[in-house]
Amino acid sequence: MATPNSFDIREKIALGVSAVIVVASIVYWISQVVGALEMLRLAYG
Amino acid sequence: MSLLSLFEGLEASPIGVFVKDRGATFASIEAVHLMALALLGGAVLATDLRLMNVILRDVPSSTVNQNAHKVFKIALWVLLITGFFMLAGVATKCYHSFYYWVKMLALATGILFVFAIKQPLLKRDHTLINPWTLKFVALASMSLWFLVAASGRWIGFSG
Lengths: 45, 159
Known about the structure:
The structure holds 2 protein chains of 2 kinds. Chain A is mainly α. Chain A has 1 helix and no strands. Chain A has one helix at residues 9-44. Chain A is rod-shaped and about 55 Å long. The model of chain A has no long low-confidence stretch (mean pLDDT 87). Chain B has one domain (3-157). Helices cover 84% and strands 0% of the residues of chain B. Chain B has helices spanning 3-12, 14-21, 23-51, 61-89, 91-95, 98-122, 131-157. Chain B starts with a helix and ends with a helix. The interface between A and B is medium-sized, with 19 and 20 residues.
C-alpha cells in the first residue's frame, strides 16, 4: 500500500512529466525576457 | 494539401467570412472566449493552489478538484468552440504567428496533461499521494495554462 512518503509508478511518471514541464517553462520565459531585453537594447541603445 | 492552404481555406470558408464580415461578430465571440478563459483559469487556480496548500485549506483537496474539474471541462469546450470560430476569422494571421503555435502546443500539452496525468492521479486518495508530487503537478498545470493564456494575448499584440 502506498504511503504519502513513498512514490508509486504513477506518481513517478506524474512527477517526471511535471518536472519537464516546469523546466521547459522556465527556459521558455527566460528566453522571452532575454529576447525582449535585446530588442529594447537595439531600439534604445 | 499543405497546412497553409488548410488555413487559407478556413479563412475563405463561409464560417471565416461570417466571422470577419462584421467587427462585432469577432468581438462578441472573443468576449465569450475570454469569459470562458477566466472560468478555466479560475478552476485551474482553485485546484492547483489548493493542491499547494495555499487556499481553501479547510476544504478537502479532492472536493475542490472534483468540483473545479466540472467547471474546467465546460470552460474548455467553450474555449475550443469559440477558438475555432476566432481562428476561422484570422486563420492566415495565426498561421504566420509564432505565438499562435506556442499557444497550440501549450494547449495540446495542457489537455493531455490534465486528462492523462493529473486527473488519473487525483482520482486517488490525496492523503496517500506524496505532497511534493501534488505540488509539482499543480505547478506544472499552472505553468501550462498560464502559457496558453499569455501566448493567446500575445497573438493580438504581435500584429
